[in-house]
Amino acid sequence: MVRETDLIRDGYGDSLGNNRWRINGRVYVREGTEKGTLYPESGPGMQVLSRNEYKALVLLIRYAGYTVEAETELRNTPGITDEVIAVARAWFDRSQR
Questions:
Q1: DSSP 8-state code for residue 97
Q2: Would the pLDDT of 41 be above 90?
Q3: Which residue in 8, 31, 42, 57 has a CA-CA distance of 20 to 30 Å to 19?
């Protein structure tokens, strides 16, 4: 995906308007200004996470997995349920393979 964002920045990819581009079947969105962050929105290999699932995944990344520290912060974060943690842990585990 890094290569795809580089290609979009170099002028490749189909502009869909509204700060969106398609390349290799994936749609990317630019957040903010012209030099803003590009992130994948949809397409092959993409699954949409809820806001809370994403928050939980970020915490797992910060703590390098489901550590005692991560569990403590997850349990004290509003909206983070056991189901949300399960989704985030599955995504984190996949990224470690």
A1: -
A2: no
A3: 57
